[in-house]
Amino acid sequence: MSVRKILIPEDKTFYSRDEIAKLLTPEYIRGLFEGEGSFTNDMRRDGTRMPTAALIMHHRDREVLEGVRDYLGIHNKVYEYTNRGRHTAMLIIREIPTLKNIIVPLFKNQLLGNKGMQFEAWLKMFPFLDGLHLRNIPKKTPTTEAAV
User: Fold this and answer.
1) Which domains, from first to last, does the chain contain?
2) By the 8 A CB rule, do 16 and 127 touch?
3) SS3 letters for the chain?
4) pLDDT in tens, 91-137
5) Residue 106 φ/ψ, nearest 5 degrees
């Protein structure tokens, strides 16, 4: 029995960035972060630790990252880089208002695996993120399709 390899164009996605943003749900985004995301910190030049949420995927899934960004209503750039032969794309969120008002409400008590433990430890490291939130997580508006 021979195995045939299916050839897929390297930089193609099933849906466009705009289509992806329309199809995303909070649950899907939580799943992406559960598997591919991290809640960590960056060290500033003055030695201050700043909270960071990051989602890193293969560069061919850049449009998924851009869709997540657009769905969340944030304006962060999706970066591409190559390290040790791996070409990846990364969405990094460092802005305190975005972390506090979008990321924390989206993930608080919602992550099921080890990422939930990482998230809770991250909140303990940066307790100012877990205060009064100015707005809730983005909600998908129902599409209005013609009823048949």
Assistant:
1) 17-123 (3.10.28.10)
2) no
3) CCCCCCCCCCCCCCCCHHHHHHHCCHHHHHHHHHHHEEEEEEECCCCCEEEEEEEEEEHHHHHHHHHHHHHHCCCCCEEEEEECCEEEEEEEECCHHHHHHHHHHHHCCCCCCHHHHHHHHHHHHCHHHHCCCCCCCCCCCCCCCCCC
4) 999 999 999 999 999 999 999 999 999 999 999 999 999 876 655 55
5) -70, -35
